[in-house]
Design brief:
single chain; 387 residues; alpha/beta; Rossmann fold; six-stranded parallel beta sheet; 16 helices; 37% helix
Length: 387
Amino acid sequence: MKSLKNLNFEKIQNVGVRVDFNVPIDKNSKITDKTRIERSKETINYLKNKKCNIFLISHFGRPKKNYDEKYSFIKLIKQFEEILEFKLNFISYDSFLENGLIQNFNKSPLSLLENIRFFEGEIKNDLSFSQSITNKLDLYVNEAFSASHRYHSSVDQMARNILSAPGFNFEREMIAINDIKKSPKKKLAIIGGSKISTKIKTLLTLTSSCSDIFIGGAMANNFFKYNKINIGSSLIEHSAENMIEMIYKSSNLSGCNIHLPTDVMLDSNQNIPVSELPKSYDFKILDISEFSHIHLEKLISNSDIVLWNGPMGMIEDNKFSKGSINLAHLLAKAHADVVIGGGDTILAINMAGEKLKNFYFVSTAGGAFLEALENKDLPGIQALMAD
């Protein structure tokens, strides 16, 4: 795989960059988390300094038809410009269909195409569609690791068509994941969220590479139930017993220790040891509590690398976000290399008021991050590795 910094830019003028501007917005279309855009700036600025014409490509949401105003970038352009600190030439859906790419390059050194998922050839990974873009380019850069588990044209085929390289943040995502999987250092994984089924393969992989795994969030309820602990009417994933058994078997074979919360917070706001949970069914477990944090603090202090993916409680309710917020504070001051696995985990960090720079690496990738941990061959990575 080539590196941007090792490329000779003497004959490189027009560069396509696959970014991830699929950002969360509120009801007024205000961007609520700028992280993904800010992560792309280093690559964009590097190419600007090389005097390149830059053509940005991104998706936004999951539109069901060729053009849907709800998923258009038009309402976000001004905010993009403020974050990137640069004027954008916006290439509309109609303009691209009528004029193609090259006629739009002359208007500004930095252009953004309308939502790439409006174009049928994107989802189909269509060769002809991909060539309608890359035939006008000298270099293709993938700076959207978060989309790299998709067999889409801007992720896979475009990178295969011409000279291609990963962006700087894309490279850091790969390095962080490789550290978790292959580093000989002592590793701890802290896994939260609600569904085991969405993370079963990740958990099985982590039992082979980590010394310890701490299970939190609603996912822990399934482990409690498996261990004959009454969980009342707490959220669980039904038919999870076989998956939990697989995790315990794998961890026993590898010597990985599975840890569960020792105390929890109930929907009544009561903090209670797990060993003293009521025998009734009129309660819900919604967060971890004080002694679980003490246990986590010990695990973190004894680890060299820590991965955190998924909240420890029902983070959308402030009353039950304390477990995740306190964990964010713990990890921000940890001596270990802390890797944050995207999604609601970043929300917890923001709620805690911690800066992302306080962590070794913060992934913005979500599903692609987990699939890479599972040793899957991501299309985006495979395309960049192709000759």
